[in-house]
Design brief:
Layout (H helix, E strand, L loop, with lengths): L18 E6 L4 E6 L2 E4 L4 E5 L7 H7 L1 E6 L5 H8 L8 H4 L4 E2 L8 E2 L4 E11 L4 E11 L9 E3 L5 E3 L7 H5 L7
Antiparallel strand pairs: 1-2, 1-5, 3-4, 4-9, 5-8, 6-7, 8-9, 10-11
């Protein structure tokens, strides 16, 4: 085995999919790219890392709500573009041709171009680690989309694309405790 600088160890453990997170402070909608995400247990509870360096962070904390929009690989350039400019001086919806769709439970908009959108409420913030915990309250999926592969950030400017699915549901069903 070859040694890897410890500062690059994070690139070995790819997180959940890259997401777009929309917020609305009541005056302006914004969208930010978040590359470090995870599902928490077998529920609609999610965690993401962000902080005051993101323009949307204050709206997220003030309103305690957002939308997780899940893009597919055909939106990779949009996802990277959204993540490399600030909503402070850019209308990212307009600049990247993203279509706002009114959400049913939160002020932040859904993004039509994404394969799925999850309306969320902020339930916890772990300041020392920049972790925001979200509770999903409504989910929307566009089954008509041809492209279904999501993208995952390695952390150094490279991405992994979901590939072939392998079905082991039956095998796992027999090993899981009842009720899951």
């Amino acid at each position: 085995m070859e040694n890897l600088p410890i500062g690059k160890a994070f690139t070995l453990m790819e997180p959940g999919p890259v997401i777009l997170v929309t917020t609305s402070d009541g005056r302006k909608d914004n969208v930010m790219t978040i590359s470090w995400t995870m599902v928490m247990d077998f529920s609609a509870t999610f965690a993401m890392t962000t902080g005051s360096w993101n323009h949307s962070y204050s709206a997220l904390l003030d309103t305690k709500e957002c939308v997780i929009a899940i893009p597919t690989v055909d939106l990779i350039d949009t996802v990277v573009g959204v993540g490399t400019c600030s909503g402070k001086d850019t209308d990212k919806f307009e600049k990247f041709g993203l279509t706002r769709v009114k959400a049913g439970h939160v002020r932040a908009p859904l993004i039509k171009e994404c394969i799925a959108n999850i309306e969320c409420r902020v339930v916890d913030v772990i300041d020392g680690h920049g972790i925001v915990v979200l509770q999903g309250i409504a989910a929307h999926v566009d089954h008509s989309r041809t492209e279904k592969r999501t993208i995952h950030a390695v952390g150094d400017g490279t991405f992994i694309v979901d590939g072939r699915k392998i079905d082991r549901k039956e095998m796992m069903r027999s090993k899981l405790p009842s009720g899951i």
